[in-house]
Design a protein that fits this description.
Layout lengths: L6 E7 L5 H10 L3 E6 L8 E7 L3
Antiparallel strand pairs: 1-3, 2-3
Length: about 55
């Protein structure tokens, strides 16, 4: 039987002028982008990320 991957998640606001830098930094830390949706207040979108939990 194989062990099922356990995930941890993060939700981060994205600044329009720094979106690439923000996502690159989270990617360097092992996070994978899952989705980007409009933010609740204003023009800034929100990113949802995931990565495998450390054992």
């Amino acid at each position: 039987m194989t062990e099922q991957t356990k995930w941890e998640y993060a939700t981060i606001p994205l600044l329009i002028h720094a979106t690439k830098q923000i996502l690159d930094q989270w990617g360097e830390d092992g996070w994978e982008l899952v989705a980007v949706v409009p933010g609740p207040d204003g023009p800034n979108p929100v990113a949802y990320l995931k990565r495998p939990k450390a054992a």
